[in-house]
Amino acid sequence: MVKPLCLIAVLLSSILCKSTYGDMHNPFIKPSFVICQDQENALLQELSQWHYHGYVAGHAGPSKGIPTIWLSDKQQWLKIQSSIPNPLQHWRILDISSQYIMWQTDLVDYCHKTLTFNMPFMGR
């Protein structure tokens, strides 16, 4: 009689922990939360290191160029095509023109905030 009651108690506690903390592997670990302002600062810092230097001419000629940004401290060029490259995977492009690239990203759900970053053309 003790074993079935113990089993029921374990099952109930795991169900209650799952409903309280969501689908977690270990119900005894509290969920970790990121401070919204810290996440905002980190995302803006990540993107502000890059500089928009214009288009690189493609095989089809200068009119079909590929927008390119530059990470100066690491001497790295990054082409922006249909998908966002790995270093900036949290961001999406809203608009590209000859004068700027408009980026956008969402903070974690509980922050209820979307960031927009205007990367101006810096040319070389």
Outline:
By secondary structure, the chain is α+β, with helices and mostly antiparallel strands. The protein has a three-stranded antiparallel sheet with strand order 1-2-3. It has a three-stranded antiparallel sheet with strand order 4-5-6, with helices on one face. It has helices at 2-21, 36-48, and strands spanning 50-58, 61-71, 76-79, 92-96, 100-106, 114-120.
Count of helical stretches: 2
Number of strands: 6
CATH architecture of the largest domain: Roll
Shape, please? elongated
Helix fraction?
A: 25-40%
Q: How many structural domains in the coordinates?
A: 2
H/E element order: HHEEEEEE
Beta fraction of the residues?
25-35%
CATH topology (level 3) name of the largest domain? SH3 type barrels
**Strand line-up in the sheet with most strands:** 1-2-3
Q: For the record, what CATH class of the largest domain applies?
A: Mainly Beta
| Structure classification | alpha+beta
Spans where pLDDT lies below 50 across 5 or more residues: 16-23
The Rg value, from CA coordinates, equals 23 Å
- From the N-terminal CA to the C-terminal CA, the straight-line distance is 80 Å
